[in-house]
Amino acid sequence: MRVYDLILKKRNGLTLSKEEIDYLITNYVMGNIPDYQMAALNMAIYFRGLTKEETLNLTLAMMDSGDTVSLKDIPGIKVDKHSTGGVGDTTTLVLAPLVAAAGVPVAKMSGRGLGHTGGTLDKFEAIPGFSTDLTINEMIQAVTHTGVAVVGQTGNLVPADKKLYALRDVTATVDSLPLIASSIMSKKLASGADALVLDVKTGDGAFLKDLDEAIELAKNMVEIGQGAGRETVAVITDMDQPLGKAIGNSLEIEEAILTLRGEGPSDLEELCLVLGGHMLYLAKAVDNVEEGMETLRKLIHNGSGLKKLKELIEAQKGNGNVVDDLTLLPKATNRVSVKSTTSGYIHKIKAESVGIGAMKLGAGRETKDSIIDLSVGLTLEKKVGDQVEIGDEIAIIYTNDDVNSNKVQDAYKMILEAYIINGERIERPKLIKGFVDKQGVNTY
Ligand code: URA
Ligand code: CA
């Protein structure tokens, strides 16, 4: 096989066979195919697309490029959840213990934050003592015993994606649906869950601004999941604003605890119930999604979700008392009120700008090696649909820096600019836009 011929074939719109795709991925990871040839292939894929079968074959080849995790030793159907990118997306912190409280095992492998997006591992590490540094065997032990564990990626999972993603990032080929779908799904399949619930974000703050494109990505990923023998559902959700109020590591742990107490922001609770309802359904713990949502609502109100969070924290060496005493979490020393400079209705809160604002405050990483401050961040005190007057507090900054420092002033400006306000009245946006399962697309 000559790589040149395979690039030509794709450039001309023909279909690559499984053997050809396996050859390309295997040899690229081994260093036998140079970046310039892979870049040309990616660009051909960007313009020509991939068939359903090619997308599945690419995903499986990527999955097999490194280690894969087996969760077979944990009894029951293991369901994982993935979001296509969030700012202040606190759902995993709520869902992992809540779904486990319903008796469905959750083995959650998570990552760290980079740029404007946060990472679940960083958030959990805001809990004093909490360790995410478990081996695969320790994770399996923890899930078998407690029903849930949240750990960092161990082993060499999907090296093909690390290499390909870095290449796409510098060659304008990130936003190709089959390349996004295979990138996400190869990592999810490698981490071993039997079934998968995807949260596909759409809107201004998402990767895919357009609803039709988000649905198309969802369809691609569901087809891959089903093709790989893992039941997969994708829920399409609005990202015209960040979810909940809190953005920042310790602040989001606090928000998750409040949500598990039944005192959280309504949009965050709603999304947790919908995603969790699908998770329970895929785990065959309930007969339909609505019953799953009802089950989870009860587990919030009778305190079982919060109790499970405490068990999870203690099993991972953290101070479980945080669930009852929020003052045990790291707190920033200064708070700055962000005041509206216009009056009207909030139409959008640009998630990316808010995320960059939080990063500038030190809640996120500018580069992989940046040191983050777990205590800092911001809360959105007004959300889309709310009416505001000039001078109203729309957000609060939590910082350990001087409130007049450039850092804080820059963040202030970013947050203020993230709010799109005008005189026209607007309804609260619908959070859940629809879902895609093996039967097809359902929009609301
Ligand atoms: N997230 C991923 O993991 N991969 C992509 O290609 C895009 C988003
Ligand atoms: Ca949040």
Characterise the protein shown here.
This protein is of the alpha+beta class and 444 residues long. It has three domains: 3-49, Up-down Bundle (Transferase, Pyrimidine Nucleoside Phosphorylase, Chain A, domain 3); 79-324, Pyrimidine Nucleoside Phosphorylase, Chain A, domain 2 (3-Layer(aba) Sandwich); 331-422, Pyrimidine nucleoside phosphorylase-like, C-terminal domain (Aldehyde Oxidoreductase, domain 3), CATH 3.90.1170.30. The protein is 44% helix and 16% strand. Helix 2 (18-30) packs parallel to helix 4 (52-63). The protein is globular and about 65 Å long. The protein starts with a helix and ends with a strand. The protein binds uracil and calcium ion (CA). Calcium ion binds at residues 88, 90, 243-244, 246-247, 252, 255. The site of uracil has 6 residues, from helix 9.
Draw up the topology in text:
Elements: H1 3-11, H2 18-30, H3 35-48, H4 52-63, E1 79-83, H5 91-101, E2 106-110, H6 120-125, H7 136-146, E3 148-152, H8 159-169, H9 177-190, E4 195-202, H10 211-227, E5 231-238, E6 246-247, H11 249-260, H12 266-282, H13 289-301, H14 304-315, E7 334-339, E8 344-349, H15 351-361, E9 377-380, E10 387-388, E11 393-399, H16 406-418, E12 419-422, E13 432-437, E14 440-443
Parallel strand pairs: 1-4, 2-3, 4-5
Antiparallel strand pairs: 5-13, 6-9, 7-11, 8-10, 8-12, 9-11, 13-14
Helix pairs in contact: 1-3, 2-4, 4-9, 4-10, 5-11, 5-12, 5-14, 9-10, 12-13, 15-16
The structure holds uracil and calcium ion.
Uracil (URA) binds at residues 165, 174, 179-180, 183-184.
